[in-house]
């Protein structure tokens, strides 16, 4: 795992910018891991963007986002149009909580970014995202948040209690 975290860190530091995306109909595992990763990336003096459709049928997601905003935690959520405009030659796309291309929030972005990382805890299936720099999938874990906790430990970093609570709920 240490080698994977070291490689992820290198790719983030070398990137022009970083896009974080999870699956459609985001849940608290995906949101918590995206918020955590966003916080980590900011610590490297990079500006992350979270690709997220704000229209959700989940009151838990709405409450989590309200809590983040109420506590003045900067959450760089961007629409598909904004994400597409932000893509540069050395953009890094990190996909969380899915490895299936058809489940990604904005599938068309996959073909526009050459540097991709997949971090997931679901069993590998058909239609997995191809051409990744790193694909870490561990179906022995209960959540993608567990991967993020491991990454935080590797970096010896902490996150806000609000984001930690959202991760725990996930």
Describe this structure in words.
The chain is built from 6 helices and 6 strands; from the N terminus they run H-E-H-E-H-E-H-E-E-E-H-H. It is of the alpha/beta class and 170 residues long. A 6-stranded parallel beta sheet has the order 3-2-1-4-5-6. Helix 2 packs parallel to helix 5 (144-155) and helix 2 packs antiparallel against helix 6. The protein is globular. The chain starts with a helix and ends with a helix. The relative contact order is 0.23.
Structural class by secondary-structure content: alpha/beta
Helical content (DSSP H or I, runs of 4+): 40-55%
Order of H and E elements: HEHEHEHEEEHH
Backbone shape: globular
**Alpha carbon gyration radius:** 14 Å
- What's the overall average pLDDT, rounded? 90
Bin the strand percentage: 15-25%
What is the topology?
Elements: H1 2-14, E1 17-21, H2 28-43, E2 48-51, H3 59-70, E3 77-78, H4 80-86, E4 91-96, E5 115-120, E6 134-137, H5 144-155, H6 161-169
Parallel strand pairs: 1-2, 1-4, 2-3, 4-5, 5-6
Helix pairs in contact: 2-5, 2-6
In short, what is this structure?
This protein is α/β, with parallel strands linked by helices. Helix content is 41%, strand content 16%.
Defining key terms:
170 residues; alpha/beta; six-stranded parallel sheet; 16% strand
